[in-house]
Amino acid sequence: MCTILLPDVALLLYRICRCCRRIYVKLFHTIFHALTIPCVVVGFIAVLDSHNLANPPIANFYSLHSWMGLVTMGLFALQVFKGVNTGSNIHPGSCVDMIHQNFLILLCCEGATAAFRASLVPIHATFGITTFMLAVATCLTGLTEKAFFSLGNTYSSLPQEAFVVNSLAMALMGCAIIVGYIVMREDLRYRGHLLVSAQAD
């Protein structure tokens, strides 16, 4: 659930927070995403152990849920990699070019990198919301898979466990709808992105 909650907070914080300087909002956005990494690693190891140590062992990576999980983790890793290492030859001779365009340097050298960062916003935002929605969809398929494996034919009679699973799934869908709506609202977008984009054009 941390793979949903922490990115959820990171997305909403970045979109709607107006109470502090933008550099701090970006820093907290990064921190919440960074906190997701150990959750993903621990969850991945726990799943592999539960499959490999079962008697008899359970096959890995055969279900839709596992495939979606791998795609989601791949997109998340790509976002992290591109956030930490953003390429080269942006502004030759600038502080960014001299220090290999590290993400934190990009944040600190806001003036020198404004146009470049503005050009990355649509790509980063699209991959970010896509990764979040895929994480929700992966959780939903995982809940369904677990319910069918654990409850079997009793699932249709809606025992207490099935009610809990279905309620959790509905809460996840509600979260995805609300976060998607807030993130896509243009009037909640930080105005600095619009100004920098206009200047770059």
From TrEMBL:
> Which cofactors are required for activity?
heme b
Q: What InterPro entries is this protein classified in?
A: CYB561/CYBRD1-like, Cyt_b561/ferric_Rdtase_TM
**Keyword set for this entry?**
Electron transport, Heme, Iron, Membrane, Metal-binding, Transmembrane, Transmembrane helix, Transport
Q: What is this protein called?
A: Cytochrome b561 domain-containing protein
Q: Which residues form the signal peptide?
A: none
GO MF terms listed in the record are: metal ion binding; oxidoreductase activity
- Please give, as recorded in its UniProt entry, the membrane topology of this protein: Multi-pass membrane protein
